[in-house]
Design a protein that fits this description.
Elements (H helix, E strand, L loop, with lengths): L2 H11 L4 E5 L2 E5 H19 L6 E5 L4 H12 L3 E4 L6 H11 L3 E4 L1 H10 L6 E4 L6 H5 L14 E6 L9 E5 H15 L7 E3 L12 H6 L3 E4 L7 H11 L2 E5 L1 H14 L6 E6 L6 H11 L3 E7 L2 E8 L1 H5 L6 H5 L4 E2 L3 E6 L12 E7 L5 E2 L3 H7 E2 L2 E10 L5 E6 L4 E3 L2 E3 L1 H9 L4 E11 L3 E10 L7 H11 L8 E4 L13 H10 L3
Parallel strand pairs: 1-10, 3-4, 3-5, 5-6, 9-10, 9-11, 11-12, 12-13, 25-26
Antiparallel strand pairs: 1-2, 7-8, 8-18, 13-14, 14-15, 16-17, 17-20, 19-20, 20-21, 22-23, 24-25
Length: about 500
């Protein structure tokens, strides 16, 4: 099913319903939204010869035009290549060239730098917030979306590439339909009166939730800032109401800090779906205490978007079950469309409680990596996606993440999982953020080193942290040293760059 069919259906059922909002202002209803996307598709077909299967890149900051272009590309039967607007123009150019995307939509603020270095494959760079974009609205509209079958690739998503060049994840119409269906079953229902807020990049987690709200003819809200500003979000929530949003754990932390500082309780926010990185137990406990039962956790990867496991709103808020802390520290249970296992390096199932690599099979799993058969064969084996994440299952099927396999610290022949140590340190009242990595040691293999960001205004003594760890975890797991830092290095998606921390340790004098 072509997602553009969903937009057409909602436009027929709710033509006058508000669809696209900039801040509090409605800029298009569903009839206009669908008509603009159909015209963009017509322009792509008639003026550029775009046909089914062609790649069209979107290198835009968050704007309502993003959604018009997105559905216009699908209306034409082409493949969307979403590129994070926070990337450098050179990084975007590499992705465009690798995808062989001949047409690129940009916004002015980042598009000029891209235009200056665009690869030869690009025939045109279209500024979606410029005067020239009006011609796309005036083009002859395509009457119907190009038919798409389940196995057709429609989304070519590039991984973050923190350990090398990014890989293009080939997602099909069937993959995205499975993800969308699972959202309604396992994450949250969406009603016609609901709104989705795009405060994180629309190229990634935030934007991928557009499908559910298009299907239910909900509202799509782009903040005036176009980005994540907690005060602005709380203000919009009070006015617009029934807002849902995706937020990385670092964003949830900032929301909670803002709420505490200003006396906000989250009024108007329906659901915050969090994922994309480790949410520590202390942080989510505080989030529910401050903002109430508004949180749902998902675990997924670009290779299985948002659809590996989920921890429901009721489970996140539950404080009555005997194992509520362990469940809250988990990423929930397998979503309805996926099978989930924890295995050893030979692919054999591990006993309950043992830590191994998480493997997944199901309808959301990618076709493979674009132009990279070797990486595909390494990642998908006998139909199972090897995630590279380490975890353990309990007797009830709850999955607890430990770390990426590359982040596990081996000291004295024993595996130490940084997340376990991080969880403990975050229980200390003076610790705001923490990241734990391994440092080479001539005798033990690796030492455990903790980078700690204190709570604002606090001075924390290393002996305090050491004593705290010794009361909570085994002595061999405690950090052998600490680094007190003002902030942790993060990439464009809010993930802590542990590679940078390791490099910093390597550069220190012995």
């Amino acid at each position: 099913m072509n997602p553009a069919e969903w937009l057409v259906r909602s436009a027929h059922l709710y033509p006058d319903a508000p669809a696209l909002l900039r801040g509090e202002n409605v800029v298009a209803d569903y009839a206009i939204f669908a008509a603009r996307s159909a015209s963009i598709a017509g322009a792509l077909r008639d003026q550029y010869g775009v046909k089914a299967g062609d790649r069209v890149a979107i290198f835009m900051k968050n704007r309502t035009e993003y959604l018009e272009v997105l559905y216009g590309v699908w209306f034409a039967g082409a493949v969307v290549v979403p590129i994070n607007a926070k990337l450098h123009a050179k990084e975007a150019a590499w992705i465009v060239e690798d995808a062989a995307a001949e047409i690129v939509f940009v916004t002015k603020d980042i598009g000029m730098a891209f235009k200056a270095i665009k690869p030869d494959v690009v025939r045109d760079v279209i500024v979606a917030d410029g005067a020239e974009f009006a011609k796309f609205y005036q083009a002859t509209a395509m009457p119907l979306p190009v038919p798409v079958i389940s196995d057709d690739m429609i989304w070519l998503f590039y991984t973050s590439g923190t350990t090398g060049k990014p890989k293009g994840v080939m997602l099909t119409a069937g993959n995205l339909l499975a993800m969308t269906t699972a959202y309604f079953i396992d994450v949250d229902d969406v009603r016609h009166e609901d709104a989705i807020l795009y405060a994180a990049p629309m190229s990634h987690g935030a934007g991928i939730y557009n499908f559910m709200h298009v299907l239910r003819a909900g509202r799509h809200v782009v903040p005036d800032s176009g980005s994540f500003v907690p005060e602005e979000i709380f203000s919009l929530a009070k006015t617009i109401d029934n807002i849902s949003m995706f937020a990385a754990p670092t964003m949830v932390r900032r929301l909670v800090d803002c709420a505490k500082a200003n006396g906000f309780d989250g009024t108007g926010i329906k659901t915050v779906v969090y994922g994309g990185g480790p949410m520590y137990l202390a942080d989510i406990i505080e989030a529910v205490e401050v903002m109430g039962p508004r949180f749902v956790q998902i675990y997924g990867q670009g290779e299985c978007p948002m659809a590996i496991s989920a921890l429901s709103r009721s489970l996140v808020a539950d404080r009555t079950h005997p194992n509520w802390r362990a469940r809250l520290a988990s990423v929930g249970i397998a979503q309805a469309c996926t099978y989930l296992r924890v295995v050893d390096e030979d692919g054999c199932d591990l006993p309950v409680g043992d830590v191994g690599e998480i493997v997944v099979k199901g309808t959301p799993i990618m076709q493979g990596y674009w132009g990279n058969a070797e990486a595909t064969a390494k990642t998908i084996r006998d139909g199972w996606l090897w995630t590279g994440d380490m975890g353990a299952l309990d007797t009830d099927g709850f999955l607890t993440l430990h770390d990426r396999s590359k982040d596990v610290i081996i000291s004295g022949g024993t595996n130490i999982y940084p997340r376990e140590v991080e969880e403990v340190l975050l229980m200390h009242p003076k610790v705001h953020e923490v990241a734990v990595v391994g440092r080479a040691h001539p005798e033990w293999g690796e030492d455990v080193i903790a980078f700690v960001v204190p709570v604002g205004g606090c001075h924390v003594e290393l002996k305090e942290l050491n004593a705290h760890c010794l009361t909570e975890i085994a002595r061999f797991k405690r950090p052998k040293d600490y680094r007190i830092v003002p902030e942790l290095p993060k990439n464009n998606y809010g993930k802590v760059l542990k590679t940078d921390l390791r490099v910093r340790l390597e550069k220190e004098d012995p």
